[in-house]
Amino acid sequence: SDILCATHSGQRVGRIMQEMEQAEDDFAQKALVDAVENQIADGHPREAGLVIMDLIGQGGGREDALEKMADVLAAHIALTMKDDTPFDVNAYARDLLQLSATDTAE
Q1: What is the C-alpha to C-alpha distance for residues 92 and 62, in angstroms, rounded to an integer?
Q2: Which residues contact 101 (CB under 8 A, 6 or more apart)?
């Protein structure tokens, strides 16, 4: 009975931990999407505005386009943190443009 109770409790804790991780992932994704939306609004880098229009023009939804762009931003932030180097806006802009070229090729 105690083992069964401990197993049930452990499963519940595991489920709660998964939900917390998902909430953190959702929060991080929203923050990245917000950052991309700010880049588009500010026009910096200007490629952000070009790519969002291109992706939407190719028939993708705005949310889908923003999420793809946020993934590129996340990769560049991770690289910056891993290598302990300044954020390379030119490399980021290049990769955004690649995103739009990749979608055209599909």
Answers
A1: 20
A2: none
- Tell me the C-alpha to C-alpha distance, in Å, between residue 101 and each of 24, 71, 95, 98: 31, 16, 10, 5
**Number of alpha carbons in the 13 Å side-chain half-sphere of residue 16:** 6
Q: What is the pLDDT of residues 40-86, one digit of tens each?
A: 999 999 999 999 999 999 998 999 999 999 999 999 999 999 999 99
Structural contact between residues 72 and 97, judged by C-beta atoms closer than 8 angstroms = no
DSSP H or E run through 58 = none
Residue 106 CA to residue 74 CA, distance in Å, equals 23
Amino acid present at 61: G
Higher pLDDT, 97 or 10: 97
Q: Is 52 exposed, middle or buried (0-12, 13-18, 19+ CB in 10 A)?
A: buried
Percent of the chain with pLDDT over 90: 67
- 86 preceded by cis ω (within 30°)? no
